[in-house]
Structure prediction request, 137 residues.
Amino acid sequence: MPNDLDYFNLVASVIAGGLGAAIISILFEQRQKRREMAIQLVQAYLAKYDEIARAKAILLKRPPWNVTETNWILEMGDWLDFVSALCNERLADSKLLERLGMDKFIKYFYEHVAQVSEMLSFLENWDNMKRFAQRSR
Prediction:
């Protein structure tokens, strides 16, 4: 005949099993959300491919840049800083983005902009990109 200890063990097992399943479910769901965010970022990256090519061309050009080129770089920098923030905060799967090469472009962009003295004041606003570029070395 079962005693109180047997019932306690049974209840504890059910609770522990349910808690374990809930934790695993939460972790899986978070991972899935990070992957979905990364896929959305990759889609945006591909949609911006022409803009990225233009930004690379501007970065290769010797400054001073005209106003349109500077604004183009600032817009791209803001977007890359946003992407970096999502990766830094683990809201996007940064490993997937790295496998697809986005990390290389972020580092390339940050390092090239850092070489342009007129842009140094803007780099201060891109802390997320700086952290991401330093972490990804």
Observations:
- DSSP finds seven helices and no strands in the chain.
- Residues 34-135 form one domain.
